[in-house]
Structures are given as C-alpha cells and as structure tokens.
Amino acid sequence: MKPISRLDMFDHAERVLKINDMGTYTVPTHGLYPFQWNWDSCLTALGQAHFDEHRAWTEIDTLFQHQWEDGMVPHIVFHKQDKGYFPGPDVWQTGRTVPTSGITQPPVAGYVVKRLVDHARDPDLAEARARDLVPKIARWHEWFHACRDPKKTGLVAILHPWESGRDNSIDWDDAFSRVPTDGVGEFKRRDTSHADAAHRPTDEQYKRYIWLVQRFRSLNWDNTRLHDASPFQVVDPGFNAILIRSVADIAELAERYGMTGIAQMSRRHVAEGLAALESLWDDRLGQYVCFDRPAGRKVDSASIGGILPVFAAIPLERVQQLATRIEALKARVEYLIPSHDPADPRFESLRYWRGPVWLIINHMIIDGLVRGDVPDLIARITSDSIRLIEEGGFAEYHDPLTAEPCGGGTFSWTAAMIMEFLQIVEPVRAGS
Ligand code: GLC
C-alpha cells in the first residue's frame, strides 16, 4: 500500500467519505458493510461537517427517519438489497417497510448533534436541524431507560454483542458462552469473503450471534420482553458512558431551546447514571469493568470499554486514574490505544475488538481526557492515530503493534475521525 502523506491526508479523507456516500446516507465501506450503520453514520457526520454541513445533518436525519415507534433506533438500515451481507433483512424479519435490524448500537447521536451545533459555521441551519432531532434522540434515550434498565438500576444492558459496537470483545466471552447454539441451522457468512477470517470473529461466535437474533425474532422484536428473555445481558461501562454523555449533551441543547421537560428528565438520568457507573470501578485493574447481569458478577476483562467512561462526566480523580491506565498501556504497544490490554493472554493484535486500535475510540477518549490535565497524553494519542493512517491507510482498524491495516479498507468513520484529529494538530487547515 502506498503510504498516505500527512499533507494530503485531509483531502484523502474527504475522498473516502465521498466514495462511500450514497446520497442521503453513507456506507461504512463498500462490500463488507453495504448499508447504513447507526453509530458509523453519526460519527461520519462529524467528518462531513468539515466540508458540507448540510450533508452532515442529512446523514443523521436519514437515520432517525427509521426510528421505531417504541423509540429504538436500529443498528442497521437496509436501504437497498445486497446479497453480499449476512445476516440480511430475511434473517432479521423486523417487518418494517424499509427493513432494519432489530437491535441498537451505542447512542452517539446526542453527542454528535451537540458537537455539530457547537462547531457550526452555519448556526441557523444547525439550530433548525437540532431542534427537530433533539426530541427524537431524547425518545431513544427514554427507550433505553425503559427497555434496557427495567429494574431502574441507573445503567442499561446490551442484549447482543453487536449492540456494543465492539462485536467480539473479550468482555463478552463468559456471558456469551451461556448463549446456546443448538437449532441455529445452516448459514453462510459473507464477511469472510470481504476480509481476512483471521481478523474477524470466529464461526462459533457467529452461531451465537444468530441464535440471539432468532430468539428475539421469535418474540416479534417486542422490546418490553427482550431484556428478560435474553440469556445475554451485559452492562458495559463504555456503552453506558456514551449514553450518559449523549443524554447530558441533549439536556444542554434542550435547555438552550426551551424544551424544559426533556432537559429536566435528561439531567435526572445523567445523575443516576454517573452514580451507578461508580459500581463498575475496579481498583485492581485501575479502570471500569463490565457487569454480567444474569450471573450477578463483574467481568474480569481489561478492555477499552472500561476506559471509555472518561467520555462521560465522571469524577476528575477517575479521569486521572484512567490516564494512568493508558500510560501503562503505552509501554505495551507501538500505537495507542489498544482495544484490549496486551498484558492479558487473551489479547490478539489483529482480531477486531480483541486488541486492535479503532480511531473512533481514540476520538472519544481524547474528548474525555480534555477534562484532565494530560496534554502530553492527548498529543500522543492524536499523533499515534495520524501515524496509523500514514502507515496503514484508512482501514477499519489497525494492529497496535505494527500498524497493519485490518478489516475493510477506505472506511468512513476512520476518514471522519482523521479530519477531527487533524483539526487538533492543524486547526486552521482542517477547520477552513
Ligand atoms: C462492525 C463493528 C461495529 C460497526 C460495524 C460497521 O460490526 O464492530 O462497531 O458499527 O462493523 O462498521
């Protein structure tokens, strides 16, 4: 692969976003992911806003046009038929006019919308679009609190590893081993014809992914029943931090726009979430960990999901502790931040969410670290992210030891995040 020069990087990123642009939505990459993905789209909009704010808002509007009546925003919208992806609409069978999957993804929309508003070059456009989106996003947040936290613990559970956005993280291994595979039937994976099988989840994991889909489908995707019916319910600190952050950002926008009810309700959820998040702190690892709800125990797994809470307004002391944690990881990799601690024997540098670096995660962690007094660490994560692209191109994710590009190529959110990183190091160029 031809190395990408830093001088050309911004324009190159813009080209990637344009190649993947389908008009009103953007695919993560052609071939491997040929539809609209929820958090990919929202984070991609941050990149689009650098060159076309209208287009960025449309990206999020399109996603929310497919919000379910109960408030959920699905993780995939299947705008067009494409036989190259499994599991497609025929497996999900959610009964929607434009088919969607039946599960959700990390709710970054609230965060993204506030960021678009705060950085807008066209504030009138931003306010008009945000005013329309805020109540929809708030409804999605309420859906989470009602359907994924039925006992009102302050924290929500994911019911499928795909909901976390960190599909095959080591975090899920224990809980996932309780998901049966019998009766799943034959199926043909498509991902491994687009990407190296050694970089992807295993066949055994795929059977369990599909078992859960079939289970939820048998309940007609009734979200009032799915939580209790799922053998897999994991409270992920990273996912919850994203939710808490988005709820807080929506509270702020709602307040600005005089949407008092939404503002008050959101503030209450933020306070409850932040208080409950503390229960996931693990002193031994110096980071947060997941909680396996049916088993009633914490999960011993040092993943990036436990560092991501820096993205929410956690106590400043915790921000410092998480910075110390990242400093420790620095000695174990060439490029920050690995999605799993290499000191753990289960770490795999090339396999998806079991070790590789993902720029979207670096972006959110940097955003959170700004609250701490760690400029050198922020500079290091930023320059590592840019070096990864210089050496490995706009891949889906990269090996933290060698920068080897992995998964899909010409990836939308990688390109969008690079535009954000370049803005940190060259604010005038990227912001112009
Ligand atoms: C994979 C990732 C997920 C992402 C999707 C599309 O499933 O794990 O986070 O949204 O691909 O890029």
TrEMBL record:
Signal peptide: none annotated. Pfam families: MGH1-like_GH. Gene3D superfamilies: 1.50.10.10. Residues 33-414 form the Mannosylglycerate hydrolase MGH1-like glycoside hydrolase domain. The keyword GTP-binding does not apply. Keywords: Glycosidase, Hydrolase. The keyword Plastid does not apply. Belongs to the glycosyl hydrolase 63 family. This is Glycogen debranching enzyme. It comes from Rhizobium halophytocola.
